[in-house]
Amino acid sequence: MTRLTTSPTKKNFVINWSLTFVLLSLTTISLLAIYAASPLLVYYLDGTDLLIKQIIWVIISIVTLVALLQIGVDRLFTAIDIAYWILIFLLFLLILDKYINLPFIAPVNGTRAWFYFPGIGTIQPSEFMKAVLMIKSATIIAEHIEQNRIANFESDIHLFYKILKFAALPLVLIIAQPDTGIPIIIVMGLIAMISLSGIQRYWLIGGFTFVIGAVLVFLFLFFFAQDFLVDLVGSSYRLNRFYGWLQTEDYISSWGLQLYQSLLTVGSAGFFGHGFGSQVISIIEPQNDFIFAVIGQNFGFLGTSIVLFLHLALDLIIIRIIYQNEYYREKIMAVGLLGMLMFQQIQNMGMIIGLLPITGITLPFISAGGSSLLSFIPSIAIIYHMSHMNESKKNH
Question: Which of 16, 34, 59, 389 has the highest Cβ tally under 10 A?
Fold first, then answer.
């Protein structure tokens, strides 16, 4: 840690250089990977154009981070309700576009999740809703703990109700786009935060048992009673993803194609990869969902290991900051961020090597996309502020 003097009239801000190094390293790898994906892009996308847009979003994100730290992150907590309702309005517009053709909205593969602005690119409100819900939930949970020193069944139910009261509407609107990836990420963040709220332990044990049981029942039905499973849930696109995951070789030309290509890409790259900008195996959505496979194809085991190590380092740095901090509201928010990050990391890298089913969940700070990158900035600003407070406490 070193000190940076922001101005003569302000206290020195303590920059966490370890966190800064990891974030800048991930950003650099992201830019390299996006450009390396150029030969794999569909005909209507240009690699140079994607790279320039991503650089612009990186600059915007850095400026926003500095501005938030200058203004003070407390304003993020006090102004979060305004951001919430603005995003709710935008999500309503996306749903309304199904019935009325609105400007600046163009569905992609049947999903209405983006506003398109010529010369700027796309804005995805649901990405920003992730940060808003984490910050708002942290305030609610912190206030609930302050008012309910002793946890019991009634207080736990009241907490669940208060969170559900504001989280349910955006989740429903996002699912209706339709998009299930971001709602799952949000739910994982909320679960991480609630687990730190002091609720009765049986909620956590019961929830974990239910999830494990549901997964085991699903796998049993999938392998031994598949006809019954189809009758139960219907033949849907989401179920077809499990065919592609669990029976990849039987669906190489359809539902298993993406995973099969990904496995060939990573498996054939060796230790150092095929070289920068290589086009050995085609990859669908190489700049977004499958950016980790692009890194594997170009830089091999070495490149993917570096990405894995950097994400692990990011998680450990955040955990250390959380552990050292004494401000409960900020700690809860950081745990929510960590829950989302770890889920995205595990899901994205896991699906590339076949450990998990293919989803539309991107790799944080690596995949192309301005909305995803910028949406992390408010939470990262709070993390920097927490680190600063930790170091200030040590020095006094």
Answer: 34
